[in-house]
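Tokens for Hypoxanthine phosphoribosyltransferase. Go.
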Amino acid sequence: MSVEVLLDEKIIKERIKQLAKEIENYYKDKTETLHAICVLKGSIHFFSELMLNLNMHVNYSFVHVSSYAGTESTGRIRVKSWVDEPLQDKYVLVVEDIVDTGNTLRYILNYLKKYRPADLKVATLVEKEKYQHGIPIDFVGFKVQDVFLIGYGLDYEEKYRNLPYIGYLKNT
Ligand SMILES: O=P(O)(O)OC[C@H]1O[C@H](OP(=O)(O)OP(=O)(O)O)[C@H](O)[C@@H]1O
Ligand SMILES: Nc1nc2[nH]cnc2c(=O)[nH]1
């Protein structure tokens, strides 16, 4: 197996800089601190790089949810840890690494809405093109073809998260 690079480190970092500008622009008239929620584990690198590029006050929260076995969604979302601060009337940004079937994001948003935030937005580094999941995603880094991705936080059986680029496995 070899890794075929789809998005290299430079392209990823440039796009994240642009996304940070789009996000700053959206929140520019809001006086409240932004509550950014990192969806672990996959979002770790995207979240970190995005936050380092955001020129505004941000409060960090982390949730840990998982639903994949190998390359397939089990359709069952397992919550391993959840936000523990009040989000009512807050400006909340969910930060995902990838939206694929949309199951994970739908689950997270449904729960977060119950906290009655003032505003609830989503940023994802990658969105798979194939699905019509119907969830509005406010800030999208890249739309990609339907191939199982690894790297930059994305794993295959817990490996490859620490690759500095995004790619896919190829039989050689
Ligand atoms: O749109 P979906 O089909 O639901 O897929 C997206 C989710 O899949 C991955 O999480 P995973 O369950 O692999 O957990 P991990 O982040 O800990 O790797 C990824 O980080 C997203 O949260
Ligand atoms: N690693 C990885 N996790 C995912 N979760 C949903 N889609 C993907 C994918 O393409 N790669």
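The two ends are 5 Å apart (CA to CA).
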